[in-house]
Amino acid sequence: MPEFRFELMAVDGAARRGRLHTAWGVIDTPTFMPVGTAATVKAMTFEMVRQTGAQIVLGNTYHLMLRPGAERIARLGGLRRFMGWDGPILTDSGGFQVMSLAARRKLDEKGVVFSSHIDGSRHELTPERSIEIQHLLDATITMQLDECIRLPSERHETERAMELSLRWAERSKQAFQPRQGYGLFGIVQGGTDLELRARSAKGLAAIGFDGYAVGGLAVGEPQALMFETLEGTCPHLPTTHPRYLMGVGKPADMAGAVLRGIDMFDCVMPTRSGRTAQAFTKRGPLNMRNARHADDPRPLDPEADCPATRDYSRAYLHHLVKSEEILGATLLSWNNVWYYQEVMRGLRQAIEDGRSQQFVADMLASEAAGDI
Ligand SMILES: CNc1nc2c(CCNCC3CCCCC3)c3nc(N)[nH]c(=O)c3cc2[nH]1
């Protein structure tokens, strides 16, 4: 069983091209991880997910502990076998989803108690229980339980949540069962306060993790503030380990974050927008409900070798979304995840070639150019 190892292959400024070796496969970084909330990347089969070039997908403690239950998934052989994905899986610890989805939440030193948004049943999530659930799911990469506060927030509140998350990081590490080829990531908090961010990053590095996530962002702050926070956070993280920016983002957000030292991303945007008729292309997003596509025989992008949409006309995609056909959601989600993988392939090559700044500038110009 290969050990969990991050191989730094090339650096271009603060941008990194690497390879993350895990028990269930290799992940080329920078990487985009499609979100599989309830054991499915919505509207897609895992065969389609594979064809996009994705190498790792996300699962989630919060959703799966409520339904179908972590112990049930363990009895069925773990999440990979349950959903038929043959590669590595990263599971989030559930805290973020509790704070954004659950009802009657109470958070204290021990953890968080809450009522299920599905049937109102009461549940408790502690650092130890979250680690146990992710173990039952057989997650390849496990996330610590953390507290992600809403922005903007008072400094003392940001500090309290950051320090709690650091204590929970320690408890998570104590509870984690090390296994060859599996990893545990800490999560940096601290809002947009760079002194708190530095303290959080150094505190996590002192505890020692297999990778470091930057949490607490993509919660409504302007892109410039997210980038400024990354510039004040990444330099305090070990260069030898992967960095994961949680919940990000639009292609431009990811590209800018790669230039500031981030290696891994997850976001619901490509799949969620695929279900709302949006098609990502290198010339920016298209709303396929727009009547201007009704008679257009061209594919979305004649130069894109996309397994999802290269064989279909815009007119057909327009018809599917107007008719509320399920295939519309499938083809656009598949197209969008493929486009996100294209952006990552381009970034990896550009970093190897020492031209990542130029690649990002060209990508932004192309997306701004608008449709052909
Ligand atoms: C969208 N913006 C954003 N997302 C954040 C997330 C969630 C990342 N995505 C996980 C998937 C979500 C759908 C279900 C499957 C897991 C965050 N998660 C944690 N633990 N901590 C954050 O600070 C944290 C911060 C985040 N900011």
Question: In a nutshell, what does this entry contain?
Answer:
With 372 residues, the protein is of the alpha/beta class. The protein has helices spanning 46-51, 61-66, 70-75, 79-83, 95-101, 127-136, 155-175, 194-207, 223-233, 251-258, 269-274, 314-322, 326-352, 356-369; strands at residues 5-12, 15-22, 25-29, 31-34, 57-60, 89-92, 103-107, 112-115, 122-125, 141-143, 183-188, 211-214, 243-245, 264-267, 278-279, 286-287. The chain starts with a strand and ends with a helix.
What small molecules accompany the polymer chains? the ligand CNc1nc2c(CCNCC3CCCCC3)c3nc(N)[nH]c(=O)c3cc2[nH]1
Integer-rounded radius of gyration: 20 Å
Query: In whole angstroms, how far apart are the ends?
Result: 49 Å
Tell me, rounded to a whole number, the average pLDDT. Answer: 97
Strand order of the largest sheet: 4-14-13-12-11-10-6-5
